[in-house]
Write a structure and sequence with these properties.
Strand order of the largest sheet: 13-12-11-16-15-14
Protein name: SpoIIE family protein phosphatase
Pfam families: GAF (PF01590), HATPase_c_2 (PF13581), PAS_4 (PF08448), SpoIIE (PF07228)
Helix content: 25-40%
InterPro entries: Bact_Sigma-Reg, GAF, GAF-like_dom_sf, HATPase_C_sf, HATPase_dom, PAS, PAS-like_dom_sf, PAS_4
Strand content: 15-25%
Number of helices: 24
Radius of gyration: 58 Å
Structural class: alpha+beta
Distance between the termini: 163 Å
Keywords: Hydrolase
Length: 900
């Protein structure tokens, strides 16, 4: 052959020498791949190891020639029996260069010595045509007693493959980080590796012959035995089977994951079950931790979405319990400080935790009614704890755990009671978390979370979660409390700035409505007012401060107060608006300065923006206002307007009309004069004053809103509300608000309606007297006669005395003709007119003075008095309350004596 023989790399002295298989195995490479080994294994019944390594046998006779030749030898060496029998084995299949050594080896064998060695041979199955066989020769004798030999030959490549496979299997079995174990078909353990022994806590030698019941608790052992039998019978592998138990000498519960598969022989016969076991206690614990974290995060996410949706304290408490039960605990309750619920800022005992609390919410997944769980803290002993009912006000004793939690703002754990104490549900509780509800470093209440026995106990993560849930609810509750406090204050402010619900005025029927644009605060800048003026006259005011909310309400309050002050001075409507304009101009500037505000106010009033160089302008207050004064005697009404929508007048039998009142500039612009007009109003006429929120919104323009208002007031006869001028005034207000778009929420709405009912001629006494001393007596006579005709005899003496004082002052300090007028409505009003411009001034007379006590007497005997300018002079008036049959009024004699 041109190629070097396969045995050429083997030293000559090795062939035919006695060597051990181990030493030979270390010097030869693996000449057969694993895939080839698998193919031979699967196709060689009955599956013995000899089948796997293909052991060939032959015999040598006493002459050193082949006497017997097996079929395996023929397959391995490529020579048939006829070709081999009778041949010299060395010459038959040993390469020529090794034949000399081979002959010496055969001679030694025939001398009776055993021999083991590696022999090169010609192999037709090998791709190179050569192979190496490991030959074991045993001396023997034939029937004649002559020396012979029995030879066994194994292909080195198959042998070395088997050695490699065994070494690999041993390495995997012994060095694997996983626990390997083998069970026989009798379900007894055959072998385990060191890792398995370490996992289950026993030496490896103790596992041979053990059963599952020797390793695991009964229930788990039954499961493992059934799984082994199932895998052995079906051949189907089983993966990740969970098992639980304890290792020897430990009380900790361990968790293992076991995978099983069936083992087969080369012929496919089941010979046992192999398995892998992994300790997953740490992984399981980590999974539980992660699941707990995910569950808590989901619960917190749900809490963020569900807690605090309302600004109601009780609703927020119930939302907390809806989240906590049953996802977090089995029972829960919320107690809030009674003082906080009632509006007190610092309830007594809040700092030491002994203040009164009210149970505002309770929830249970195991009971329909309240139980005594953490409530055991509210009594001094646990002998007879009584459940706290929802709505009940109670206290926790100073030395109780609940009071301690309230004092320190720290979570406390109340352990469950022994179930043998009572059959009530409270004895079934495992533990209770007492969690103070803290918001902005202030404790507002107490939340209690309980779990029943059998549930997982509260852990540190549960404590942290309970604190977080309680804190979220506490912040929402505190926000609700602060909102309610501010809301109540705003309402108090708003209500104090508006007239009473049923204002009264002489000669007028009045109905009014106020709808805040902001339903949350219920405050705004719109206002209306009904002011009684001297002479039974009435001032009707409707105004609108630009802006919304509390800021606009404060500005409105300042303007309303100013209007009332100016109205009591009895100024003309145009003069009142001019003074209001100056006041509004100075509201938003430091020190009330008007210079910086004037430019910005005018720019805003015209729809623009204030100049950038108006750095001294801090705030601009603009307002619109309509001011009307109605005199029931003359039935005339004087109007002045400051940029406000025009009043609407509905006369009996006529259509509603927009009154042509000069609009003027809004208040706060400054420098613009206001005009006024005087209109005579017939009895039964309806006057409507309103703000722009009633007639203007995004959905329609101001003109469209005004037309809708006129249509609502000009209801055709036979419609639901009837004729607006003749129907009930309250019904007319409701009809207008129901017809127009009043729920847009864009602006406040104020509506003031007045139906004119002037004073009848029988209720008015009017006389003119000359500027002469005898007019004093005449005035007394006229007053007496008029009061007697009205049936007011009880007021005659007082009225005569006061009339004489006013007429005397008119003669002494006034000028021209004197006019005396008596007006009867809800009160009696007496007016004395003269042409003088000097206003009377009340002063305190000394004991030695002979005069100067007239106005003091008027002030003592009347319900009110005053003076006002008129176009031709002044008017001094006083007012007396009508007798009610129970009191006789002030005693004139006593009043006179009190002056000295």
């Amino acid at each position: 052959m041109s190629e070097k023989p396969a045995g050429a790399d083997i030293p000559e002295e090795t062939v035919g020498s006695q060597v051990s298989p181990v030493s030979q195995g270390s010097s030869l490479p693996d000449m057969s791949p694993m895939s080839s080994m698998s193919a031979v294994w699967q196709s060689s019944p009955p599956g013995s190891i000899y089948d796997y390594i293909q052991v060939a046998s032959f015999a040598l006779g006493s002459d050193g020639r082949i006497a017997q030749w097996s079929e395996r030898a023929a397959e391995l060496l490529g020579l048939s029996a006829p070709q081999a029998i009778g041949k010299d084995p060395v010459e038959a299949f040993v390469p020529p260069e090794y034949q000399e050594t081979g002959h010496r080896a055969v001679a030694d064998i025939l001398d009776g010595r055993e021999w083991t060695g590696l022999v090169p041979y010609r192999s037709p199955q090998s791709p190179s045509g050569h192979g190496i066989a490991e030959v074991y020769v045993m001396p023997a004798q034939d029937e004649d007693g002559k020396r012979s030999a029995l030879c066994i030959a194994v292909d080195v490549s198959a042998l070395r493959g088997l050695e490699t496979d065994l070494a690999s299997s041993q390495a995997v079995f012994g060095q694997s980080p996983l626990g390997f174990f083998l069970f026989g078909t009798d379900l007894r353990m055959l072998r385990v590796n060191e890792r398995f022994a370490k996992v289950f806590g026993r030496p490896t030698e103790e596992y041979r012959g053990v059963t599952p019941h020797d390793l695991l608790p009964r229930g788990e052992a039954d499961r493992l035995a059934a799984a082994l039998r199932q895998v052995l019978d079906s051949g189907q592998a089983l993966t990740d089977m969970p098992l639980m138990g304890q290792t020897p000498g430990s009380t900790d519960r361990r968790r293992w994951s076991v995978s099983l598969y069936r083992l087969h022989s080369g012929s496919g016969r089941p010979i046992g079950i192999a398995g892998l076991a992994t300790d997953v206690t740490g992984r399981r614990r980590a999974e539980q931790e992660a699941a707990g974290v995910r569950r808590n995060l989901a619960l917190l996410n749900e809490a963020g979405a569900r807690i605090g949706t309302s600004l109601d304290l009780e609703t927020t408490a119930r939302e907390l319990l809806d989240v906590a039960v049953p996802q977090f605990c089995d029972l829960a309750s919320v107690d809030l400080y009674q003082g906080l619920l009632s509006g007190d800022e610092t309830p007594p005992g809040l700092a030491d935790g002994s203040a009164e609390l009210r149970r505002v919410a309770f929830a249970s997944a195991v009971s329909d009614g309240p139980v005594a769980f953490g409530d055991i803290c509210r009594v001094n002993t646990a002998e007879d704890p009584k459940p706290i009912q929802v709505g009940e006000v109670h206290r926790y004793p100073f030395n109780s755990l609940c009071a301690h939690a309230l004092r320190t703002a720290q979570v406390r754990v109340v352990p469950g009671r022994d179930g043998s104490e009572s059959l009530e549900l409270g004895a079934m509780l495992q533990s209770t978390l007492v969690v103070p509800m803290v918001a902005r470093d202030t404790v507002v209440g107490l939340a209690q979370f309980s779990r029943t026995k059998g549930s997982e106990p509260f852990g540190e993560r549960d404590r942290a979660l309970a604190v977080e849930l309680a804190a979220r609810a506490a912040v929402s509750i505190d926000n609700a409390r602060l909102y309610r406090r501010e809301h109540e204050r705003a309402l108090i402010l708003q209500r104090s700035l508006l007239p009473p619900g049923d204002p009264e005025a002489a000669g007028l029927d009045i109905a009014c409505r106020y709808l805040p644009g902001n339903a949350a605060t219920e405050v705004g800048g719109d206002w209306f007012d009904v002011i009684e003026l001297p002479g039974h006259r009435t001032a009707l005011v409707v105004g609108d401060v630009m802006g919304r909310g509390l800021r606009a309400a404060v500005a409105m309050g300042e303007l309303r107060t100013a209007v009332r002050t100016l109205a009591l001075l009895d100024l003309e409507p145009a003069e009142v608006l001019s003074a209001l304009d100056e006041i509004a101009l100075g509201l938003g500037t430091p020190g009330g300065s008007h210079a910086g505000a004037r430019t910005g106010s005018r720019a805003l009033a015209r729809g623009g923006q204030a100049a950038e160089d108006s750095s001294d302008l801090t705030e601009v207050y603009l307002a619109t206002c309509v001011y009307a004064v109605y005199d029931p005697v003359t039935r005339r009404c004087t109007f002045a307007n400051a940029g406000h929508p025009p009043p609407v007048l509905v006369e009996p039998g006529e259509n509603a009309l927009l009154m042509e009142v000069p609009p003027g500039m809004p208040l706060g612009v400054g420098g613009e004069p206001f005009e006024e007009i005087e209109v005579e109003l017939p009895d039964g006429a309806l006057l409507a004053l309103y703000t722009d929120g009633l007639v203007e919104s995004r959905d329609h323009t101001l003109d469209e809103g005004l037309q809708a208002l006129r249509a609502a007031l000009d209801t055709p006869e036979g419609a639901e509300a009837g004729n607006a001028a003749a129907g009930s005034l309250e019904d007319v207000c409701d009809h207008v608000l129901g017809t127009l778009d009043t729920h847009h929420g864009e602006d406040d709405i104020a509506l003031l309606m007045a139906r004119v009912q002037g004073l009848s001629a029988e209720s008015v006494g009017d006389w003119r007297l000359p500027s002469a001393p005898q007019s004093v007596g005449r005035a007394r006579e006229l007053a007496r006669e008029q009061l007697e005709s009205w049936g007011l005899d009880g007021l005659v003496d007082t009225t005569e005395l006061l009339v004489s004082e006013l007429v005397t002052n008119a003669l002494r300090y006034g000028e021209g003709e004197i006019r005396l007028r008596l007006l009867l409505d809800r009160t009696l009003v007496c007016e004395v007119w003269d042409g003088g411009l000097v206003q009377p001034r009340r002063r305190r007379a000394r004991d030695t003075d002979e005069g100067g006590r007239g106005l003091q007497l008027v002030g003592l005997l009347s319900a009110g008095w005053g003076s006002r300018r008129t176009p031709l002079g002044k008017t001094v008036w006083f007012e007396l309350a009508l007798p009610d049959g129970q009191s006789s009024g002030p005693d004139s004699v006593e009043a006179l004596l009190s002056l000295w």
